[in-house]
Request: fold
Amino acid sequence: MFVFFLQDIEKIKGVCKPSKFGVGLSKIVDHSVMQALEISGSEITFKTDTLQSFLISYAIKNLMGLHSIDFDVDLSLDRLVLYEPGGHFNCHCSSSSKDSSI
Reply:
């Protein structure tokens, strides 16, 4: 979890769009499933390599559950999703594939 100052959140919200969900070209906005804002990873840049390295390290240690790695990692940000109070992402079936992916 990252902590931001309120004025930073307002700046981020200023460039966000309603968050979509789905697969490929079938992504839609449906607030009954997902109530959030997002910004594309391609629109996010890091001012320093140190910050980017920190985020990669954080992802590996906390999100992937690894304590150390002995291989090269290429990590890219798909999107930044901002959930405000009351925001949510509900479990849903996004396709009618035979494995019933949720």
